[in-house]
Amino acid sequence: MTTTDAAGARKPRFRRRVGRTPVVLVLPAILALAFLVLPLAGLLIRAPWATLPQRLTDPQVLTALRLSLETSTLATILCLVLGVPLAWLLARVEFPGRRLVRALVTVPLVLPPVVGGLALLLVFGRRGLLGEWLDQAFGLTFAFTTKGVVLAEAFVAMPFLVIAVEGALRGADTRFEEAAATLGAGRWTTFRRVTLPLVAPGIAAGAVLCWARALGEFGATITFAGNFPGRTQTMPLAVYLTLEQDLDGAIVLSLILLVVSVVILAGLRDRWITAP
Amino acid sequence: MTGPLVDSRIVVDRGAFRLDIDLRIDPGEVVALLGPNGAGKTTALRALAGLVPLTDGHIRLRDRELDDARARRWVPAEHRPIGVVFQDYLLFPHLTALENVAFGPRSHGTGRKEAHTVAAAWLDRVGLGDHARRKPRQLSGGQAQRVALARALAVEPELLLLDEPLAALDARTRLDTRAELHRHLAAHPGATLLVTHDPLDALVLADRLVILEGGRVVQEGDAAEITAQPRTDYVARLVGLNLYRGRAVGGRVDIAGDLTLMTTDSVDGEAFVAFPPVAVAVHIERPTGSPRNTWPATIAAIQRHGDNLRLQLDGPIAAAADITPAAAAQLDLTLGRHVWAAVKATETRAYPADAAGWPAG
């Protein structure tokens, strides 16, 4: 009997602790949740469900969706190829001005995307600092082309990847790299066979964030690459443009973006984003 | 070949700490670097492996100069014929046991298939042939230790470095693993340096002990020499002896606290006197007769020590005394009690302090 008594005495104490959670915190917390969820619910409530199948198969919608998926994937690959080495440099190599470089990397995070697009135009545009040379020497044109979309998305999304991967590299135990060295592995072999696999979860998390950011890119894309259906009109651009004439159409496009984002996040979150 | 396989003078500055040791290891020899935490043992090991640069000195392996601080010569870790077993093994968590062992041979340019054959043979040798496909997290501590040993040996290093190879294991596993490690070290044709703070590991596994304190070698020799004639308090504690330093004249040694200990060894000049705690008798009254050394003491601590009780005695000299529970019952022992300690002259050993090559102090 005494044991049950003891257990029974303990229970209400827990309940009281829960009951004491201050209203001052709970109320704003619920409001915040509602604020985040309600607009999404609004999308679902106002969706033209009756005409949805027909609208989904609209060739213009499919074109924009495919372009978005392709460009954001290409932008992510570009970010991986260039961003992982940059993250490695920032995490592993002591060099003068490293703090400055780290600050510069994060600039696109806080820069309004439109400004980013304008800056890209000044450098990679046909008359840009590099653009003119690239155009004449290699026939590479970025401004107002699909390549430009990839460039704009990569510019905006790269910091997400670099920050995530650098964090993972700093968190990784460098003694594994020392162990690899004592086994005769050079720096490149060590990077490829030890460092990369160890930080793979961090790289995956960074790639997902990077991809999601690229998928939603609007400002830099429309400024630098314009809005040409089939070439540079990605989903966010299509949403904005459709909104001017056709609210239901814009809602459908938004729903697609929402579903794609949620599916990707839900699919990868547990496995990767929380892992490191 | 003649002369040592490893010939080094290792000087590494780390803030206010300076490691400065001469270390030579013969082919086939197992040397234990023994010392308290912070003595610089691991730093010495890392310097040999090429993981920390020398501030001064040199490291020569066979006839090859791996490190020469003055000549600014430095061979990076991956080009040194040196294998390392790290304290927590550092098995690559994303690779299987087999791939971990094959990592070294593959890095040395062996093809994947052949490297796996070599690795499988090594896993067999450490008795883990049937664990080849396990990941490190699926291995027990003892198994991980053996995989780490196989991984280090698979590149057939001329010098094998072991950093506290048994420290991460529980007592039971340690016993088995120590015996097995001894077998593998005996079979290793190259030199071995074992870093440890456990005197038992050092005594069982090593041919020669090098004792490090505060970044310097304080004593060096085989197990018999070290246990018989400790030269610092740390070593004396390791081997379980009371140790004092003083001036000897024909077997009488004047030590601290105006105490003179009689010994049967005839020594002159600076000398050490050592005796085991079991040689110390404890009395309530001052004992008389027989050639004994006696001094007044107070009981500072009482601990269990195997089947006996160990008393820590304060007084003109600090000493440890082991007495049986029966004797303790008769003595009515309490902390702070005044007693008389006695040691027979025949149970003490005296030896010169300034033996050639040893630093004074």
Automatic annotation (TrEMBL), chain A:
Its main location: membrane. The chain crosses the membrane at residues 21-45, 72-91, 103-125, 137-165, 194-214, 249-268. SUPFAM superfamilies: MetI-like (SSF161098). It is a multi-pass membrane protein. InterPro entries: MetI-like, MetI-like_sf, ModB_ABC, NifC_ABC_porter, Sulph_transpt2. Belongs to the binding-protein-dependent transport system permease family. CysTW subfamily. This is Molybdenum transport system permease.
TrEMBL record, chain B:
Pfam families: ABC_tran (PF00005), TOBE (PF03459). SUPFAM superfamilies: MOP-like (SSF50331), P-loop containing nucleoside triphosphate hydrolases (SSF52540). Residues 3-239 form the ABC transporter domain. Keywords: ATP-binding, Nucleotide-binding, Transport. InterPro entries: AAA+_ATPase, ABC_SmlMolc_Importer, ABC_transporter-like_ATP-bd, ABC_transporter-like_CS, Mo/tungstate-bd_C_term_dom, P-loop_NTPase, Transp-assoc_OB_typ1. The keyword Glycosyltransferase does not apply. GO terms for molecular function: ATP binding. The keyword Nuclease does not apply. It comes from the Bacteria. PANTHER family: SPERMIDINE/PUTRESCINE IMPORT ATP-BINDING PROTEIN POTA (PTHR42781), SPERMIDINE_PUTRESCINE IMPORT ATP-BINDING PROTEIN POTA (PTHR42781:SF4). This is ABC transporter ATP-binding protein.
